[in-house]
Write a structure and sequence with these properties.
By secondary structure, this protein is mainly beta. The chain is built from no helices and ten strands.
Amino acid sequence: MPLTKTYSKDKSTCKVVFSLPVEAAAGATKLYLAGEFNEWSPTKQAMRKAKGQFTASLTLPAATPYQYRFVTDAGVWLNDTEADCYVYSAFADADNSVVVL
């Protein structure tokens, strides 16, 4: 399921719905959203599990790209296959997902 973006009337903020299919979650029973918007905390933003998807929604300042990844309860970091783009992270030695607002 692609990223869902709903901008405020004045376009200053955007509600983003992040999602990952359960079958893509590496066997996780819990999934978390980590990124620049929450200081890369691997447990701060729990995602909800319903209808075969893990989902989380955040309202973020618009006109900014944000790097993020999903984190399983086993500590495995996953990318979003539906991200707007990807950027290499030397810290993780892997690509990060990016949502462009």
